[in-house]
């Protein structure tokens, strides 16, 4: 038996236009879905429905896709990471600070649940969760399934990891054979997710970083992804230090090296790819990276907020698109608010290119929806169209952040807040109703996350190369009276 839902006479629908392969507005339109699939878009639907929703004062949007985040760990850094960067390592957080707050499994699960709440409430319906094999996999896939979001599980493997002995240099500890063995375990996890019957769990192969995986591990990852017809994601070109390391090892930029070993391709997603050869901090003698990314149809997953925190930005999102690179968006660290991420992506593209014409509001939304769906090889996500998955957000046009309403997508991306998102469906199931996540106890998740953050902060001296306390590394932003 099917269940039919009719969103009736919406003020605005952001619908898919197959002629232009992009979005268009439809005024006073209906959207109807049966179970998990959209079956009608347009005016004057005449069939029946089990549930009818009044679409007046509502904008119907395709859910956005967040293709790069680490929900299991990054929320622990809220209130800690904001003003941190290693000044002796070209202003990155990666090598000295990233792993300081990694915590236990219970806290990782709480962080994931809290992160998914933020995503769903901002109208995001698909996430790619890049999970590190340092945390146990037991129960992870099932926990993700219970959150209700459409999740690409991406357990990352690596042949080694970086560390700093002194806050000035980054070194690598290698364990190549263990990395290969961990891939077998990761693939079991992926296969478990892909066998799930909910229709909301999918797989993605994860090779952690360009500079921490051997050529052999990359080849094995690529082959495993191709065999399953699923994407492969890695991090690349995310710091000046990484660029210098790859130049030292190979005489190539990270992008050039990945191309030379056959990793790039239409099935491959690169997290970040910000510090590429043309980036002003890199000052490389030739500029080929964008051309290689475009030629190979590789997707770049752009996560602007995390990098803006330490003063780095892409040059520029509009420029990458103009060069023909398929772009997607990710929240990476926190907050996991795709409206804010779209806003920062749009603003920083204007700032870094010094131009308003290189990236329109439509382009930003395209990146967060259709660009991401293309990266996943999915023509049924990121769009309101007959035959597409019913991954849908309803935006309240009466919310103060949306008013006055003229062009509602511009209002949402450049002025709106997640609180304007009223209801969210994933795979045809109501997951957010009147701004409340139905599948997760958000307060409980946040309470458990707070306990996890408290534990993680206490452990900072054990993890820091200089055994500094959390408060020494990241002092409070104001003098504190009464702190014990
Ligand atoms: Zn990442």
Assign the CATH superfamily of the largest domain: Metal-dependent hydrolases
Overall 3D geometry?
Answer: globular
Strand content: 15-25%
pLDDT averaged over residues: 96
CATH architecture of the largest domain: Alpha-Beta Barrel
Largest sheet: 9 strands, mixed
Overall structural class, as computed from helix and strand content, comes to alpha/beta
| Unique ligands | zinc ion
Structure, described:
The protein is an alpha/beta fold. The protein folds into two domains: 112 residues, Roll (Urease, subunit C, domain 1), CATH 2.30.40; 312 residues, Metal-dependent hydrolases (TIM Barrel, Alpha-Beta Barrel). It has 16 helices and 20 strands. Strands 1, 2, 3, 4, 5, 17, 18, 19 and 20 form a nine-stranded mixed sheet that branches. Strands 6, 7, 8, 11, 12, 13, 14, 15 and 16 form a nine-stranded parallel sheet that branches. Strand 7, helix 3 and strand 8 form a beta-alpha-beta unit. Helix 2 crosses helix 14. The longest helix has 19 residues. The mean pLDDT is 96. Zinc ion binds next to loops.
């Amino acid at each position: 038996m099917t269940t039919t839902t009719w969103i009736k006479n919406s003020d605005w629908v952001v619908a898919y236009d197959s002629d232009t392969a992009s979005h268009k507005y439809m005024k006073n339109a209906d959207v109807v879905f049966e179970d998990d699939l959209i079956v009608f878009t347009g005016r004057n639907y005449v069939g029946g429905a089990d549930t009818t929703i009044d679409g007046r004062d509502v904008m119907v949007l395709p859910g956005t896709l967040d293709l790069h985040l680490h929900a299991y760990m990054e929320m622990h850094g809220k209130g800690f990471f904001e003003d941190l960067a290693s000044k002796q390592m070209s202003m990155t957080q990666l090598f000295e600070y990233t792993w300081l707050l990694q915590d236990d499994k219970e806290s990782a699960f709480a962080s994931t649940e809290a992160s998914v709440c933020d995503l769903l409430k901002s109208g995001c319906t698909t996430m790619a969760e890049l999970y590190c094999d340092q945390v146990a996999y037991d129960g992870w896939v099932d926990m993700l399934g219970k959150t209700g979001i459409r999740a690409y599980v991406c357990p990352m493997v690596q042949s080694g990891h970086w560390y700093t002995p002194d806050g000035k240099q980054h070194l690598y500890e290698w364990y190549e054979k263990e990395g290969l063995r961990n891939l077998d375990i990761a693939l079991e996890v992926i296969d478990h997710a892909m066998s799930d019957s909910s229709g909301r769990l999918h797989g993605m192969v994860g090779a952690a970083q360009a500079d921490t995986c051997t050529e052999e591990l990359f080849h094995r990852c690529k082959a495993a992804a191709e065999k399953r017809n699923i994407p492969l994601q890695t991090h690349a070109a995310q710091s000046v230090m990484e660029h210098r390391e790859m130049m030292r090892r190979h005489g190539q930029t990270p992008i050039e090296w990945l191309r030379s070993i056959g990793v790039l391709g239409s099935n491959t997603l690169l997290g970040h790819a910000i510090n590429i050869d043309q980036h002003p901090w890199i000052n490389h003698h030739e500029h080929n990276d964008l051309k290689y990314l475009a030629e190979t149809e590789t997707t770049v997953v752009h996560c602007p907020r995390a990098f803006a925190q330490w003063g780095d930005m892409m040059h520029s999102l509009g420029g990458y698109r103009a060069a023909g690179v398929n772009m997607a968006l990710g929240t990476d660290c926190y907050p996991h608010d795709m409206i804010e991420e779209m806003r920062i992506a749009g603003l920083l593209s204007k700032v870094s290119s010094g131009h308003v014409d290189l990236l329109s509001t439509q382009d930003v939304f395209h990146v967060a929806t259709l660009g991401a769906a293309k990266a996943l090889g999915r023509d049924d996500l990121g769009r309101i169209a007959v035959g597409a998955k019913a991954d849908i957000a309803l935006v309240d046009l009466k919310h103060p952040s949306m008013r006055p309403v003229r062009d509602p997508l511009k209002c949402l991306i450049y002025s709106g807040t997640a609180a304007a998102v009223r209801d969210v469906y994933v795979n045809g199931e109501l997951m957010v109703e009147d701004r409340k996540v139905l599948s997760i106890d958000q307060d409980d998740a946040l309470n458990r996350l707070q306990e996890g953050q408290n534990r993680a902060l206490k452990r900072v001296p054990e993890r820091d190369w200089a055994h500094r306390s959390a408060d020494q590394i990241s002092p409070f932003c104001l003098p504190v009276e009464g702190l014990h």
